[in-house]
């Protein structure tokens, strides 16, 4: 069974939809989104046989319902992608209501996927499963699945999902998200062969306001440091949010001693991130660029969801995560425009931009200056997305009140200004905005759904001696050149 019926059907649907549905104006140009229907978490990120693989939670037949599959893209360069048949379909009794999130490792030259089998009965049942591939395209589920058939004891909740596997010295380790007594937890297991797993205890659990259920835990090793990335449910005022904990990993006790907690992204549409290490040793992260509670207006056009661009992760001297779009993305740039602006209150740039990249340097001459950069602006200004730098309030914000379809909330991010300028790197796609500030320590990711013709860029500067430098690049639309595996 290398190409089973369920997978064939799902792939046929994707190929048919790609051929017959015309992309609407919100279809992403340089971000991965689903061929059609539903996408959530990035899964199984891995570099295998000279290629990058990005899997994702996939609903091939509906923009809302249906048991999750694993959709599958691969690429040689993180830029040009091929759509492969789904890797996993929910076709066994132990995963019949969904092949939920998980991760990938290369073991004995084969690609191994570890994922959660999800069954919705009176109580949900979640188990950990294995699937293996020689060629990185067709996967065979392990015949004695599940490899972990239940949480360690009956005291643990049945919410038991999202295995992330890595190797340390001679052993594989797996963290799994769980909840116990109203606290989010990450459980840790170890294994020699990815089949027999030994429970090693609670790696870490929520302290204070860290939520009641930890989804998609991911322990990153960067140099000698460790960081635990989590997507907790039920933090104060938020249903879902991604955070990270700095701390010390103790492999003798299999404990992560947490020190500080930080948001990973301040936006409304960033969740369930996952990282992997590529052949050059870089740690690369993708996130799901949506959120369970966000409105998803593209469902009318037959597709929903997107992933962030791949972001390289490094740590600052203080151990904080710094995120930067991988340098490969620079190859998509063409047609650089430069603007140098000073002492003007309001300028509409001659450049129009539907999607592309911006580097914005705002001069901080006075501590009460207020800059507003309005993107995706219609000619009559009735539609716009405003990125504001308010130095008095020490705040960077994104005002989506007039952004078009979708949610209209204002996103606020506290900033710290040190030098005499504030720099923003912005990736704007047809329906998303990613803003990187403070060397990647502060990031805002959000979705916007403006009209295609709203492409103006407008800068407002309030405060004497204000000045700004803006560089803008168009980017190649590589998702329209998607290769299709028949
Ligand atoms: C996170 C999540 C995971 C789960 C998956 C199901 O967004 O809820 O915990 O495995 O989505 O699609």
Q: Could you characterize the architecture of this molecule?
A:
- By secondary structure, the protein is mostly beta strands.
- Helix content is 3%, strand content 52%.
- The strands form 7 sheets. It has a 6-stranded mixed β-sheet with strand order 20-1-2-3-4-35.
- The site of beta-D-fructofuranose has 13 residues, from strand 1, strand 5, strand 9, strand 13 and strand 18.
Bound molecules: beta-D-fructofuranose
Unreliably modeled segments: none
Biggest β-sheet: count, sense, barrel?
Answer: 6 strands, mixed
- Taking the alpha carbons of the first and last residues, their distance comes to 17 Å
Percent range of helical residues = under 10%
Calculate Rg over CA atoms. Answer: 22 Å
What general form does the structure show?
A: globular
Sequence of strands across the biggest β-sheet = 20-1-2-3-4-35
Specify the number of helices. 1
SS content category: mainly beta
Mean pLDDT: 95
Strand content: over 45%
Task: Work out the number of β strands.
Answer: 35
């Amino acid at each position: 069974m290398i190409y089973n019926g369920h997978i064939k059907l799902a792939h046929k649907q994707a190929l048919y939809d790609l051929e017959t549905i015309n992309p609407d104006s919100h279809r992403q140009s340089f971000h991965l989104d689903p061929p059609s229907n539903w996408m959530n978490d990035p899964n199984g990120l891995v570099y295998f046989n000279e290629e990058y693989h990005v899997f994702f939670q996939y609903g091939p037949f509906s923009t809302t319902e249906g048991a999750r599959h694993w959709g599958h893209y691969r690429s040689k360069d993180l830029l040009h992608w091929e759509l492969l048949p789904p890797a996993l379909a929910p076709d066994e009794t132990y995963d019949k209501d969904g092949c939920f999130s998980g991760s990938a490792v290369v073991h004995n030259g084969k690609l191994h996927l570890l994922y959660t089998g999800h069954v919705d009965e009176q109580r949900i049942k979640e188990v950990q499963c294995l699937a293996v591939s020689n060629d990185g395209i067709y996967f065979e589920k392990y015949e004695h699945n599940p490899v972990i058939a239940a949480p360690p004891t009956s005291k643990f909740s049945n919410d038991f999902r999202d295995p992330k596997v890595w190797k340390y010295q001679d052993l594989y380790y797996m963290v799994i998200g769980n909840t116990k007594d109203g606290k989010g937890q990450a459980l840790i297991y170890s294994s020699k062969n990815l089949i027999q797993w030994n429970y090693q205890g609670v790696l870490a659990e929520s302290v204070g306001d860290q939520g009641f259920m930890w989804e998609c835990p991911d322990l990153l090793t960067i140099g000698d440091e460790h960081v635990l990335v989590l997507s907790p449910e039920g933090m104060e005022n938020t249903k879902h949010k991604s955070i990270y904990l700095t701390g010390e990993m103790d492999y003798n006790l299999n404990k992560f001693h947490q020190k500080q907690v930080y948001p990973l992204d301040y936006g409304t549409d960033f969740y369930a991130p996952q990282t992997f290490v590529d052949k050059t040793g870089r740690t690369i992260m993708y996130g799901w660029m949506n959120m369970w509670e966000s409105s998803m207006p593209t469902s009318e056009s037959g597709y929903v969801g997107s992933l962030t661009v791949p972001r390289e992760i490094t740590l600052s001297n203080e151990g904080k995560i710094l995120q930067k779009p991988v340098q490969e993305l620079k190859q998509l740039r063409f047609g650089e425009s430069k603007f140098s602006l000073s002492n003007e209150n309001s300028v509409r740039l001659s450049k129009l931009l539907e999607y592309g990249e911006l580097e914005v340097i705002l001069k901080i001459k006075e501590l009460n200056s207020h800059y507003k950069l309005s993107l995706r602006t219609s000619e009559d200004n009735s539609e716009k997305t405003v990125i504001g730098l308010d130095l008095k309030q020490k705040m960077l914000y994104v005002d989506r009140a007039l952004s078009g379809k979708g949610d209209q909330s204002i996103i606020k991010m506290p900033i710290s200004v040190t030098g005499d300028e504030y720099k923003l790197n912005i990736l704007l796609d047809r329906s998303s905005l990613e803003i990187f500030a403070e060397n990647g320590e502060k990031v805002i990711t959000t979705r916007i759904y403006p009209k295609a013709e709203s492409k103006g860029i407008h800068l407002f500067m309030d405060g004497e001696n204000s000045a700004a430098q803006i560089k803008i690049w168009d980017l190649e639309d590589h998702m329209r050149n998607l290769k299709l595996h028949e």
